Structure formats: structure tokens, C-alpha cells
Amino acid sequence: MRGVIVAPQPRACDIGAAILAAGGNAFDAAVAVAFAQEVDDPFMCGIGGMGTAHFVTSGGVHGVLDFQARAGSRCTPEMYLRNTRGRAAFGRATLHNDYSSELGYRSIMVPGTVAGLGELHRRHGTRPWAELVRPAAALARGGTWVMPHFLEFLTRRPQPGLADGRARISATEASRSIYLRPDGTMYEVGEHIPNPDLGGTLEAIAEGGPAAFYTGALGARIAEDLAAHDAWITAEDLRDYAPRDQAPLSITYRGVTVTTAPPPCGGVMVLAILKILEAFDLRSMGHSSAAHLAVLARALTEGQAGRYELVGDPFFVPFDPERVLGAGRIADAVGRIRANLAPPGKAPPREEGTTHLCVMDAAGNVISLTHTLATASGVVTPGLGFMYNNSMKLFDPDPAHPNGIRPGKARGTAMSPCILFREGRPWMAVGAPGGSAIISSVAQTVSNVVDFGMSPTEAVVAPRIHAEGGVVQAEARVARAVVEALEAGGLRVEHRPYSYDPSFSRAQCAMVEGEGWRAGSDPRTGSGGFAFV
Q1: What number of other Cβ atoms are within 10 A of residue 227's Cβ?
Q2: In sequence order, what E strands does 125-200 have?
Q3: Of 113, 260, 354, 372, which is the active-site residue?
Q4: Catalytic residue at 126?
């Protein structure tokens, strides 16, 4: 066997499997899968987006490549300070009346995905670049199938103060022409949306390499369109964009080394949650029992407390892991849980987006990669077929805040691509899409495997809760008697109507077992895929 691939999009997994079968390594497959995901899930990720790759090479190099979007050079620190509404605990900056930090050209940050995938390939890939991009171009020319989660994303009730899906895809004429029928109605599940323009754009990237997106003829079209619509991004911002290397963060959890990406990603909160859980004998409580979920809900909330004040772009805001993972903070959280005290904080509004992939190969290469469009700006440059990110909305309006605006700065994110080690060797890769639910999803998946001995599939489909302050959300598969016991213990619980709640994130997990692998892809939105080669 050559390797394993796991991701929410089955067609993307098939493309990655073909790359492995042709002799490519995990990095080659990851690049091909990521480009294909952008076609199959055009609101979850895209070449107009950003992400983070956490990897281990067969030669033992363990690193993180940050290709998060950056604020354009035309931004100023105070630009949102006087003209905001709906500012939530985590610093959402939705502007008055026009939603211009949520939709349209002024919601866009400098995209990093193409540069990030290009850098991964340059350093660690073995197959020709064009061979990895062209399958996605062919997929785009064939078109995107409307899947249930695709339509649900566009038709769900929006959080207060945010635009709905129709407004999102109607933000520009080029977007409307792709994602609405000629009569202005939405496509339904099972229908097919052709996008030959995206196929042509991907072909240009295949031919011209990653630089084509930033400085070539394609880059010139992008820069011209952004300038014509008064975006914050300049041609120089595109030209100067470069991914950044970071060192992974790590802890030991019950003898297993858990590593993740540092800020601006949210993986440090996963580590904090696990360190809190380590003080409790979860296995003896029984999975999904009242005792287990009471500890878990409080640990999820305690671990994330103060997240938006503790985590910012470390290239602008100094980050000390001890502030999150220090023994004193962990002990205080454990003490509050043992005393049955109410969890701290108030839950911010939660949005679902993003996607993830994991690849492991026979040579020992491992990659856990999360990428996103945030929730998509609605902007499509005419003739190019791809959507841009809308990450400007996730900055705090206060320039003194750790997540405040600065030109060139990345905004905070919940992305938590993790790699686990046993006896010094990579053992498991895990990550998830799903907005702030990423953190709770990844933490529970790790605990399900380490504490309860679950397989990857069992770990990602097990009943789940979500908590980050305020109300604890529990899937319908959590027994009513358990919910009542949690409420009697002082927790406020929302017993959700879904057995597999689509808002609870879609965890992806791959694991070494003997001479092969096991994998699990969360089915909560109706699709999931993995491929063994």
C-alpha cells in the first residue's frame, strides 16, 4: 500500500489516490486534493482563500507552513472603529448597512492558498506541478454537483447581523451568473453547476505555476479587478505575498505526543482542553455518560476561555504558550470543574465553513492541512470563476486588541491541524472544518481515540457536544436522561434535533496501524471520503 487520504469530498480523495498510485508522495497528493476540494466545495475553500499545513517528512522534518490571508496594505488600524455593529465577544466587525467587511471587495484579504500549496510542492513534492493541478481543472470544466451541505450553507438562517446565503452569492454579477439559475432561483440538491471559467483559471495556474496567480497575466487581472472596486489589496500586496514557517506546539497527553499549528491558528486551545481532560479518568465514566459530558463540556469551555485575547498573529502580537498551557491555568480550570462551578464566558455566534485533508504515505510523510474562504465574500472576478475570502470581518475593530487590524496581518482562526506521535513516530493526523466548532471537534476526536480506544471512524461519528461558553449544545443521540442530568448539574443545554448535527464540524482522521492505515471521515453533512492506495 502506498498511502491513505481522508477528506470530506470523495471526488477529491479519488484524485489524490490517483496521484499516489502514479508514484507521488503525500505532499503531491495533498496539493492535488486541495485544488480538487476547491472545485467540489466552492464555499468552503478556494484559490481565493488561505490555510495552514502541518506536516512531517520522511526525513523527520516537522513543520508548519502558514499561508493565512493577510490584510491589504491599504488597511488602517482604526478603519472599523467608528463604523461597526454587532461586535461580538470575539471581535466581529460587520459594518453598518452595507456589510462591507462581510461581503464584497472590501471584505477580501490577500489570498494565500496558491502560494502555500506551491511552497509545499516546491519543498517536498515529487511530481510535476501541472500534473497535480490539472485534475481539478478538468473537474471544474465538468462542473460542481450541488450536495446537501452546499445548499444548506446557502439557505441556513444567518447569525444576527450577518448576510444570508442569497445575499452572499448575489454580491457580484459574476457570482450570480455561476451560482444562480438564469431565472434567479437557487440550484437544488443533485443539480449540476458548470464552471468552465474556473477550469481555465486552474489551467493557467497549472501552466504558469503558483506565481501566475500573483504576478502573471492572471495576477494582473486579479489586481486590476480589485483596484477597480476599491479593495484594500494592491498589486504589490499580491506580488509580495509569501507563506511563513512556524514551529509546531506540543504537549503529552496520556503518553501520546499531540502537536498542532501555533497562532494565528486555534490548535493551542485543543492542547489546553486535552491537558484539562488529562486530570480526569474519562474511560471509567463511560463515553457520553452524564459524568463524561459534564467534565467535557466544562473542559471545552475552560480551555477556550479568553481565546480572542490570548491568540493573535504572532508575527505582530507576541505569543507565550504558557499563558494558555501553563500549569497554573490548567490547575485552576481543573479545580473549577471539580467544584462544579459554572463555565466562564459567553458563547459567540458560530459559523460553519472551511475544509480539511489528511494524507499519510508509505515513506512516512504525513500532512494535516486545513484551508478556507472564511464564509466567502461573494466576489468573483469576471471570467475567472473562483470566489474570494471574506476574512476582513474577523478582525476586531479595536486597533489595540490582539486581533486588531494591521496591514500584512493575519486574523485569528480556529484551524487546528494536528499530528500525534507514539514512541517518537507519527501515529495519527486529525483536523476538521467548521468555524469555532473545529476546536471542540478535534479535541473530542483525539480523546475518543486515546481515552476510549476508538477507531478513526468510531471517533469521528461518536455522539458529540459543543461548548465554548454559555449554552452546551448536544446532538440528539445524547440521551435525554443525560441532558437532564447535565441540567441538574448546573449546565444549560440545547438538545439539538439532529442525530448527526451538520453544524458540529466534520472531523477527518487517519492513523497508522501495523503496516497500513485506518481512516475516518465525518459524515455529518452527508458526505465524506477516504481512499487507500
Answers
A1: 14
A2: 144-145, 192-193
A3: 354
A4: no
CA distance 356 to 30: 10
Three-state DSSP state, 171: coil
Give the C-alpha separation, 223 to 384, whole Å: 12
Nearest 5 degrees, angle CA 269-CA 120-CA 244? 55
**What's the gap between Cα 50 and its chain centre?**
9
pLDDT exceeds 60 at position 96: no
CA–CA dist 126, 134 (Å, integer): 16
pLDDT at 89 over 60: no
Parallel, antiparallel, or unpaired for β 493-495 and 144-145?
unpaired
Tens of pLDDT, residue by residue over 360-387, are 999 999 999 999 999 899 999 999 999 9
**CA distances to 45, 79, 83 from 398, in Å:** 28, 9, 11
pLDDT tens sequence across 69-82: 999 999 999 988 77
* Residue 90 identity: F
**3-class SS of residue 172:** coil
Q: Give 503's DSSP letter.
A: G
CA distance 46 to 35: 8
Query: Quick check: 141 pLDDT over 60?
Result: yes
Amino acid of residue 395 = F
Nearest to residue 66, comparing CAs of 404, 313, 239? Answer: 313
- What pLDDT score was predicted for residue 90? 39
Q: Please give the Cα distance from 416 to 261 (Å, whole number).
A: 6
Mean pLDDT of the chain: 92
Provide the greatest CA pair distance for the chain. 63
CA dist list (Å): 85 to 13, 79, 93, 161, 392? 41, 13, 7, 8, 14
DSSP 8-state secondary structure symbol assigned to residue 277: H
Across 50-59, 120-129, 320-329, 497-506, least confident range: 497-506
Model confidence at 427, pLDDT cuts 50, 70, 90, reads very high
Neighbours of 405 (CB within 10 A): 24
Under a CB-based contact definition with an 8 Å cutoff, are residues 253 and 325 in contact?
A: no
Burial tier of 245 (Cβ tally within 10 Å: 0-12, 13-18, 19+): exposed
Q: Tell me the C-alpha distance between 237 and 229, whole Å.
A: 16
For the segment 295-347, what is each residue's pLDDT rounded down to a tens digit? 999 999 999 988 888 889 999 999 999 999 999 999 999 999 999 886 666 66
Peptide bond into 243 cis (omega under 30): no
The DSSP bridge pattern shows strands 493-495 and 472-474 to be parallel
* Amino acid identity, position 521: S
Instruction: Give 270's contacts (C-beta < 8 A, 6+ positions apart).
Output: 258, 260, 303, 416, 418, 439, 442, 443, 446
Under a CB-based contact definition with an 8 Å cutoff, are residues 406 and 389 in contact? no
Quote the cell numbers at residue 122: 516546491
